[in-house]
Amino acid sequence: KGELRIQSLTFDDAGMYQCIAENTHGIIYANAELKIVASPPTFELNPMKKKILAAKGGRVIIECKPKAAPKPKFSWSKGTELLVNGSRIRIWGDGSLEIINVTKLDEGRYTCFAENNRGKANSTGVLEMTEATRITLAPLNVDVTVGENATMQCIASHDPTLDLTFIWSLNGFVIDFEKEHEHYERNVMV
């Protein structure tokens, strides 16, 4: 196949590699450099978010993406408590922490620890719970005669500390009220 595989790389494997393809009509060369990367985990380029919001009863994923080579092992803590996989909490292979059915008790300081054979590092963020957004008045099915106007309502409750945006779609395509203002009109009730 013209393929070279190197397993269990060491620093001695670094260098310029050359592939030579030859047949009765001639010979051709191609070069590539193999760099061996090894570094302790660092969060300098991608720290954890300092504030993470999660909706009550919802699901949140807290990302932990340090730069490291080789890939680090991950662990998490909430305050001083070490976290392990359970029915509501899961540590993903990429280091992210998932919490489902979020409650007020889940609020607090979360720290991701990353460690490889070069060193270790950690990063911390605070999880805060917000009230879940709920549709309190959903649009109803409407029968309208051709040429008449139709009005559909949608009202939602949400956490007062957050903004709320309504997006309407038709058959899965978002309605652009700027471009289609002659056909659709958005009425905002305060």
UniProtKB/TrEMBL annotation:
It is found in: Membrane. It holds the Pfam family I-set. SMART domains: IG, IGc2. PROSITE patterns: IG_LIKE. Residues 41-128 form the Ig-like domain. Coiled coil: none annotated. One of its GO terms (molecular function) is cell-cell adhesion mediator activity. The keyword Magnesium does not apply. GO terms for cellular component: axon; plasma membrane. It comes from the Eukaryota. Keywords: Disulfide bond, Glycoprotein, Immunoglobulin domain, Membrane, Repeat. InterPro entries: Ig-like_dom, Ig-like_dom_sf, Ig-like_fold, Ig_I-set, Ig_sub, Ig_sub2. The keyword Membrane applies. One of its GO terms (biological process) is axon guidance. PANTHER family: BASIGIN RELATED, ZWEI IG DOMAIN PROTEIN ZIG-3. This is CNTN1 protein. It comes from Indicator maculatus.
